[in-house]
Design brief:
By secondary structure, this protein is an alpha+beta fold. The chain is built from 8 helices and 16 strands. Bound molecules: 4'-deoxy-4'-aminopyridoxal-5'-phosphate (PMP).
Length: 293
């Protein structure tokens, strides 16, 4: 099947899709993005993702390229054209293109907009979740505005590569205070022996994950105890359970941190239950019948 990508107002085959060589996303990382889960032809938590996209644009002073309704149509059409039932939809907006200039003066085009969608195997993800993942910690070397979802992902990419060399599937960034901030592309959680669900506060040092926010709704619905505070690697290793959250991983159990098992070294029961219940509280925006070709 030919894959199709939305670029600046038109749907193109990948081989025909072009971005300006002097796009500021390419030259300066001057771009923001979102990733939403697509599940049974529904976009998960679309409104929250679009609200965060709007905030990221505002924080960087990039003009909104289109209305919320227009975004919704682009998202649905991109998913439909790629026939994605389960997978992800990715949106990216850069400030635009123009002769290379640190200042914004040179921008000659409207913001560059890309939307793509690709399938992801649910069975594959569930197989990973059944085993759980390993974490490797490392010092946080990112900038001070990790609350903005920019494409400046090199530190995260390098961290995840380094984690991979140790056999881990995710990196946890640790601040100078010794507290875990978040993962390379996920939020970090532990469950204490007192059954408190602990995750760092959403400051400028971390991304306020949409999965994190929706999980908090689930925690409240189920009468569980949420504590927003930092924790050390030692505390996490001694915790009852640990897990990460992201739109692509949902609630993903962590079974090992820096080579030490968490709990009994298997996915914890609460993490598994939260993973199973997540979509009971998430917003599920189903594609219109005409859009489910
Ligand atoms: N933190 C970082 C650094 C991320 O890249 C991501 C995933 N984009 C998350 C947290 C999780 O965010 P979300 O739940 O919105 O996918």
């Amino acid at each position: 099947m030919t894959k199709v990508v939305y670029v600046n107002g038109t749907y193109r085959r990948y081989s025909d899709a072009l971005i300006h060589a002097e796009d500021r996303g390419f030259q300066f990382g001057d771009a923001i993005y979102e990733v939403c889960e697509v599940r049974d032809r529904a976009v998960v938590d679309e409104d929250r993702h679009m609200a965060r996209l709007g905030r990221s644009l505002d924080e960087l002073g990039i003009p909104a390229p289109m209305s919320t309704g227009a975004w919704q149509r682009v998202i649905q059409e991109t998913i439909r054209r790629n026939r994605v039932k389960n997978g992800i939809v990715y949106l990216q907006v850069s400030r635009g293109a123009g002769p290379r200039n640190f200042l914004f003066d040179g921008v000659e085009t409207p913001p560059t907009v890309v939307c793509l969608s690709r399938p992801q195997s649910r069975a594959g993800q569930e197989a990973i979740a059944e085993k759980g993942i390993s974490i490797q910690s490392m010092p946080d070397n990112r900038w001070g505005r990790c609350d903005i979802k920019t494409v400046m992902l090199l530190p995260a990419s390098l961290a995840k590569e380094q984690a991979k060399t140790t056999g881990a599937q995710e990196a946890w960034f640790v601040g100078e205070d010794g507290k875990v901030r978040e993962g390379g592309s996920s939020n970090a959680w532990i469950i204490s022996k007192d059954n408190e669900l602990i995750t760092p506060k959403a400051t400028n040092e971390i991304l306020r994950g949409i999965t994190r926010t929706t999980l908090i709704d689930l925690i409240e619905r189920d009468g569980l105890t949420l504590v927003e505070r930092g924790f050390t690697i030692e505390e996490a290793q001694a915790a009852r359970e640990a897990f990460i959250t992201s739109a692509t991983n949902l609630v993903m159990p962590v079974v090992e941190i820096d080579g030490r098992p968490v709990g009994n070294g298997h996915p914890g029961s609460t993490s598994v239950r939260l993973r199973e219940s997540f979509h009971e509280v998430a917003q599920m925006r189903h594609l219109p019948a005409t859009a489910t070709a």
